[in-house]
Write a structure and sequence with these properties.
With 318 residues, the protein is of the alpha/beta class. It has one domain: Vaccinia Virus protein VP39 (Rossmann fold, 3-Layer(aba) Sandwich). The chain is built from seven helices and 14 strands. Belongs to the N(4)/N(6)-methyltransferase family. It is an enzyme of class 2 (transferase).
Length: 318
């Protein structure tokens, strides 16, 4: 996830918003036969330059909305002629939405949803017909995001909510401690999306004595609740970048929802975990982040990628 961050590179803290536009130079054009890319850019500027349907898998881990200032949403819903509305309601009824006062959530960005929605629409445009979109959120926003994405993509395109459960850090004594993230999964075409259950790592049975020895040895397919630790502070994965996600989580996503040679996109790339896993599994990738510190981390972590701007490659060793 990208946010206002600092890492142990000796560089000053740089806000997430980064650079608007590309200045005098332009990032390399994407091509299905071109190199893997790591790009420093505002994703709002960069995504429209990518072609429709280019990516089989898009994973995004946008900034979590941790602000406390919230305004209620008022939206007037008007019944539409069946099949002509822009929203899908209960029992398949369609609606037109006349937006009144929109959500306003104060976090790193003045208006969280105004920031997120156009990027999600771009992600949808960039998905291939057999493509899948994973949006990594937390308990603060997942329920609002589900409603928003149902409206944008259609409820029939919702595939799963994955719960990543972990157990670390302080525990509140005034409420149940919050120890999970939520990942919403949408498919571009419910009839054509790619999902390879056999490619996913298996889990041990909780009661192996109740299944055959063959099944016990093979393990079971994970459910939609994934127990996985955070990135170890002393582990090989650790890059020093805040909010780094573990490779094990991305490995399941990439293995299940893409094939070797498919293109994967992450436009809140942060430390580059998506790119690292994609490369390890034989996928192609484009990683975008506006923070030059993130791009420096990715440049070291992803030596096979073409980095833009080139001056950020291995700058920590300069």
């Amino acid at each position: 996830m990208a946010a206002s961050v600092s890492v142990d590179t000796g560089a000053a803290e740089v806000p997430h918003r980064g650079l608007r536009g590309f200045g005098r130079s332009r990032p390399p054009a994407w091509s299905p036969d071109g190199p893997d890319l790591v790009v420093q850019a505002d994703n709002a500027d960069y995504l429209p330059k990518l072609p429709d349907g280019a990516f089989t898998l898009i994973y995004v881990d946008p900034p979590f909305n941790t602000g406390r200032t919230q305004k209620r949403q008022n939206a007037k819903m008007v019944r539409a002629v069946p099949g002509e509305g822009d929203r899908v309601g209960f029992n398949g009824r369609t609606y037109q939405t006349l937006l009144g006062q929109l959500h306003s959530y104060d976090d790193v960005f003045e208006d969280y949803w105004s920031f997120l929605e156009p990027r999600l629409r771009e992600a949808w445009r960039l998905l291939a017909e057999d493509g899948t979109l994973y949006v990594h959120l937390d308990y603060r926003e997942v329920h609002y995001a589900k409603v928003l994405m149902d409206a944008i993509f259609g409820r029939e395109c919702f595939l799963n909510e994955i719960v990543w459960a972990y157990d670390y850090g302080a525990r509140s004594k005034s409420r149940w401690p919050t120890k999970h993230d939520n990942i919403l999964v949408y498919v571009k075409n419910p009839e054509r999306y790619h999902f390879d259950a056999e490619a996913v790592d298996r889990e041990p049975y909780m009661a192996p004595g109740m299944v055959t020895p063959e099944k016990a040895a093979r393990g079971k397919l994970p459910t939609d609740v994934w127990w996985h630790t955070i990135v170890s502070p002393t582990g090989k994965e650790k890059t020093g970048y805040p909010t780094q996600k573990p490779e094990g989580i991305l490995r399941r996503i990439v293995a299940a929802s893409s094939r070797p040679g498919d293109w994967v996109l992450d436009f809140f790339a942060g430390s580059g975990t998506t790119g690292a896993v994609a490369a390890a599994l034989g996928r192609r990738y484009v990683c975008v982040d506006s923070n030059p510190q993130a791009v420096r981390v990715m440049a070291d972590r992803l030596p096979g990628a073409k980095v833009y701007p080139a001056r950020l490659r291995r700058s920590s060793k300069a």
